[in-house]
Amino acid sequence: MHDHHMAGKARQHQANLNLVRNFASRELKGRFKGSWLGWGWSLLNPLASLAVYALIFGFFLKFQAPVAGNGSLQNFAIYLFTGLVIWNLFFGVVTSSMGALVGAGPLLKKIHFPPWTPIVGSGLAVLTQAGIEIGLLFVVYLLVGNISWTTFLVPVLIVLLGAFSLGLGLVLALWNAKLRDVNYLTSVALNLAFYSCPIIYPISLVEQNYATHPWLQIYELNPLVQFVQAMKDLMYSLQMPSLASITYLIVVSLGTLALGMWVFVRGSRDVSDDL
Q: What does the buried/exposed string (b/e) look like for 167-192 if buried means 16 or more CB atoms within 10 Å of the residue's CB?
């Protein structure tokens, strides 16, 4: 009897995994369907953003990038792109989570399946695209000779960021299913969040104000600040983030994912009625 129950659970897990894969593949196929450039857009979009930010902040406003870990590289566009890939992954997972659940609504009304599967599927699709961007960034660092063992810790950081983003995405997707205003409020919050992170400016610009405004140190409690800075440490400065920062990111990421799953499972039992 026990073996039969275990086999049933294993079959259920396998079915859920297949569903996640199908949703991810549907998202990836549908993303650039009918476009001439296809997957080329997945690189052109972030590169276009990079060009605009680099021109405005690196050329007109003259933000200086610090000297990189190899002691010679000082390039604002590369410094900016390093922070931008972190932001693109976070932004993509959070926004696509809301769209994935609403998009799966008609299907959920017809057949029963776990409502979290389209959200995790869309997250995997975003992760695939982020992988392309990070791969491009790695090639750039290889060409300019700014590579060290710290570079190979980036996948660990990406897994933690994925867990944090998914945890947040699950909660927002659930709330958005019940009240569509959440989508619009999230867009406003994400615009503010972008400028609250040291992506287009070095964190030293904020740190230099700590002496006169000690309360500003709460800035570093923002997990996204820590993620962006950890990425710049590992890839640009070729140094390990502080132990406090690493511990904070592990606790926040796993805690957010666990909380997100708990809230979603509790609140999603009748979610198909809201969709």
A: bbbbbbbbbbbeeeebbeebeeeeee
The tokens describing 156, both together, are 């660990």
- 117, 23 contact by CB (below 8 A): yes
* ∠ CA 8-170-132, rounded to 5°: 95
Residue 274 has pLDDT above 80, yes or no: no
d(CA 83, CA 91): 12
pLDDT at 75 over 70: yes
Nearest one of 118, 95, 88 to 199, comparing CA atoms: 88
54-67 pLDDT tens trace: 888 777 777 888 89
pLDDT, one tens digit per residue, over 42-54 is 677 777 887 888 8
Residue 59: name the closest of 82, 75, 81, 43 by CA.
Answer: 75
Q: 267: which 2 tokens?
A: 């609140």
Please check the confidence at residue 188 and state whether its pLDDT lies above 70. yes
Q: Which amino acid is at 14?
A: Q
Nearest to 165 by CA among 105, 133, 119: 119
Determine the structural domain holding residue 57 and report its residue range: 2-274
* Reported confidence tier of residue 1, pLDDT bands at 50, 70, 90: low
Count up the domains in the chain and report the number: 1
Whether 155 shows a pLDDT value over 70: the answer reads: yes
Query: Helix/strand/coil (H, E, C) string of 49-118?
Result: HHHHHHHHHHHHCCCCCCCCCCCCCCCHHHHHHHHHHHHHHHHHHHHHHHHHHHHCHHHHHHCCCCCHHH
Nearest residue to 61 via CA among 49, 71, 52: 52
Taking Cα atoms as reference points, which of 226, 205, 198, 165 lies closest to residue 80? Answer: 198
Find all residues with CB under 8 Å of 12, minimum gap 6, and list them: none
Query: Which positions ≥6 away from 102 have C-beta within 8 Å?
Result: 176, 177, 275
